[in-house]
């Protein structure tokens, strides 16, 4: 385990690792080559990052799991971790074969666990889809715009999502630093909520004055009735961020990587209901598109500039 990462992020990785290892069980798929014409027998282990409630994530992923089992001729095991770093560590320990990362957690996984991005959400024109980071506040905070937050940082309590979250930490943290506010020292208090919905609800309940969330998570809270636009006020929105990738272990058999990639590319046509069930969190993913590591060089550059890589 990367001791510097633990010190920097200050999270309970040891506890999370216990969860990872108890859920995934020992051993990984034997990825010796089989031709695309042969039935592949084995088990793929998939890790899901905690963007929302774990039970809800697994419920939405169920149809995708069934589709992949049929399409690949393999059994699928899934787990959700308590934080992003646990998914990275699980891949580094060969406890999972595929992971749904955020852009920044993928960059960290590529550096530390040799993860390889193969798929992300795309538009109907075949381009990589994007999303945004937001900073939100509540009406009783006294903060009505981003200038208020910057000017009153020392009296402001703030929630990020997770240390390895792109839109919930990296992007808003980079923006605040660029505006002269160091969240770790300039805010009255600063916390990690653990998930996007948790960060939004922390703001909604008044536990913190302001917080980070991705725009999809914000919209989901509004649409579900958990909050209203009067409860959660968006005071800052980032530039577009490339959608989150699906990544595989770099040492998986190349033929198997291609089969997995193609299964996701084919999903909108072969099982549109499965894609709709899981990708509804992204609102308008029209399709999956094949990608490689270079898609996230923009995110990697921000991570380097902040000293995370």
Walkthrough of the structure:
Helix content is 43%, strand content 19%. It is built from 13 helices and 13 strands. It has a six-stranded mixed sheet, with helices on both faces. A five-stranded mixed sheet has the order 8-7-9-6-10. With 309 residues, it is an alpha/beta fold. Helix 3 (54-72) links the parallel strand 1 (43-48) and strand 2. The radius of gyration is 19 Å and the shape is globular. The protein has two domains: 3-22 and 39-128 and 243-305, D-Maltodextrin-Binding Protein, domain 2 (3-Layer(aba) Sandwich); 133-239, 3-Layer(aba) Sandwich (D-Maltodextrin-Binding Protein, domain 2).
Give me the oligomer status: single chain
CATH superfamily of the largest domain: Periplasmic binding protein-like II
Number of domains: 2
How far the N terminus sits from the C terminus, by CA atoms, comes to 15 Å
- On the 0 to 100 scale, the average pLDDT is 84
Order of helices and strands: HHEHEHEHEEEHEHHEHEHEEEHHEH
Helix percent reads 40-55%
Number of strands: 13
CATH architecture type of the largest domain = 3-Layer(aba) Sandwich
Strands in their spatial order, largest beta sheet: 2-1-3-12-4-13
Spatial extent as radius of gyration: 19 Å
CATH top level of the largest domain is Alpha Beta
Q: How many alpha or pi helices?
A: 13
How would a textbook summarize the main sheet? 6 strands, mixed
Shape: globular
Class based on secondary structure composition and strand pairing: alpha/beta
Task: Output the CATH topology of the largest domain.
Answer: D-Maltodextrin-Binding Protein, domain 2
Poorly predicted tracts of residues: 1-41
Strand content: 15-25%
């Amino acid at each position: 385990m990367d001791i510097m990462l633990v010190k920097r992020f200050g999270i309970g990785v040891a506890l999370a690792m216990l969860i990872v290892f108890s859920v995934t069980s020992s051993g990984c798929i034997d990825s010796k080559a089989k031709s695309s014409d042969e039935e592949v027998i084995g088990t793929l282990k998939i890790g899901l990052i905690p963007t929302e409630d774990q039970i809800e994530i697994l419920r939405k992923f169920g149809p995708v799991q069934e589709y992949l089992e049929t399409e690949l001729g393999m059994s699928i095991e899934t787990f959700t971790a308590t934080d992003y770093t646990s998914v990275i560590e699980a891949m580094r320990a060969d406890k999972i074969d595929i992971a749904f990362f955020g852009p920044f957690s993928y960059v960290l996984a590529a550096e530390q666990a040799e993860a390889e991005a193969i798929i992300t959400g795309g538009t109907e024109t075949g381009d990589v889809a994007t999303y945004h980071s937001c900073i939100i506040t509540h009406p009783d905070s006294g903060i009505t715009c981003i200038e208020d937050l910057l000017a009153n940082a020392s009296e402001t309590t703030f929630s990020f999502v997770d240390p390895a979250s792109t839109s919930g930490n990296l992007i808003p943290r980079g923006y605040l630093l660029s505006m002269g506010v160091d969240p770790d020292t300039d805010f009255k208090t600063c916390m990690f909520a653990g998930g996007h919905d948790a960060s939004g609800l922390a703001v909604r309940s008044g536990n913190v004055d302001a917080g980070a969330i991705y725009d999809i998570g914000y919209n989901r809270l509004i649409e579900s009735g958990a909050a209203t636009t009067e409860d959660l006020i968006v005071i800052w929105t980032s530039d577009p961020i490339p959608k989150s990738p699906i990544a595989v272990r770099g040492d998986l058999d190349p033929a198997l990587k291609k089969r997995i990639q193609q299964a996701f590319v084919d999903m909108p046509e072969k099982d549109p209901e499965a894609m709709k069930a899981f990708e509804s969190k992204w609102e308008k993913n029209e399709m999956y598109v094949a990608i490689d590591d270079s898609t996230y060089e923009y995110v990697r550059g921000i991570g380097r500039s902040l000293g995370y890589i």
